[in-house]
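Lab notebook, bench 4. Still working through the backlog of constructs that have no structural model yet. Next entry is a single chain of 127 residues. Request: give me the structure tokens for it.
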Amino acid sequence: MAGEAPDPKTFGSWEDAFQYPIAAVRGMERQLRNDIASNREKLRSLVGASYRDLLGTAESIIQMDGQMQQVETYIGDMGMRCNSRLLEKKAANLRAWDSDSKARGTVTTSEWSSGREMSVAHMDFGR
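Model written out:
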């Protein structure tokens, strides 16, 4: 017991350390101070790495915000350029044409579209 210093991490309370000779207690103190310094450096490096990660994340968020503002601007410009009344008129005219075509028994837009696709699919392109 006199030659070797016990591991202070195994003590249940601070009073357990004073059951050893003064030299052993001083050795445990040095060991604990070294452990504290080592842990302090580990903590600094962990916090530093986490802080750098946080800064990188914040920078990414700022970049995404700028990109989203650009997208919103582009979508807004497209909406301003799009004449919704004209599109509504075209859609209404198409629906009317389809209903007239069905009433007369002629080809509707969906039938015309699929028939055109079939004719293109069967072309042999000069073979």
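Notes after review: Residues 89 and 95 are 10 Å apart (CA to CA). The radius of gyration is 40 Å. Flag for follow-up if needed.
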